[in-house]
User: Fold this.
Amino acid sequence: MSKNIRIIPRLDIKGPNLVKGIHLEGLRVLGKPENFAKYYYENGADELIYIDVVASLYNRNSLHDIIAKTAKEIFIPLTVGGGLRTIDDIRNVLRAGADKVSLNTAALKDPKIISEAARRFGSSTIVVAIEAIKQSDGRYLAYTDNGREYSGVEVLEWAQRVEALGAGEILLVSIDREGTGSGYDLTLTKMVSCAVSIPVIASGGAGNLSDITNVILEGCADAVCLASVLHYDFIKKQIVDKELFKIEGNIEYLKSGKSFSKIQTANLPEIKEYLHRFQVDCRHRVNAEAVHA
Assistant:
């Protein structure tokens, strides 16, 4: 393949904590996001995506402190989303240290914000997240608020419009597959990837290394967004801060030592080495022996 595929950890944030759920619901506290972010950066992540998953409850993004702290220690592109409603909101997270912003609800409510933001900050700064849910008739519709709010807008039509308005990338999230480990929705990913010329980041469903390869080779994704596969590998290696279990929240799952049966954990060097076996070019190739360096 001629293009370089990016491997992008996704960190869903609720308050001060990294959380993870299934279909973006039933959120479990996993630990401190800065610990995960630092580990991923040191082990070859190409970018990071931070999403404030409860921002819609407060109509604001509350990640400014986390962004500022991360930007001082991590020197790869950082995308921030959740609760960004206005041009001022976008400006504020960029000033805090983000390199890109991810828009969803605001873009669907007023698509002009895409073109205005692209004009002011540059297309490469504007990512539009599309939360897709497959309907009983086979259509894919775009949703907001972590897949809870129906928009009635068809995903393919919206993806093409997003590109025309000046967005630089699409973060394509399959709500049906998110957190399940059952594999990416290849039909959805290929449909959107082949319909637009801007990069498409596939998100939702990775459960093993083959899933990642398939969404690139069969789904034609330009980048893959990962959460559970990486997060549970990190926890399994017992690198998480010992203060973890003093945090209030849904952590009984972590104390049990269990993991989802469908998810085979892996670290970033392992993923990149695996992809290279299939002639998939990755940025910042890391030697697997360097994991703990």
User: Anything to note?
Assistant: The CA atoms of residues 58 and 83 lie 8 Å apart.
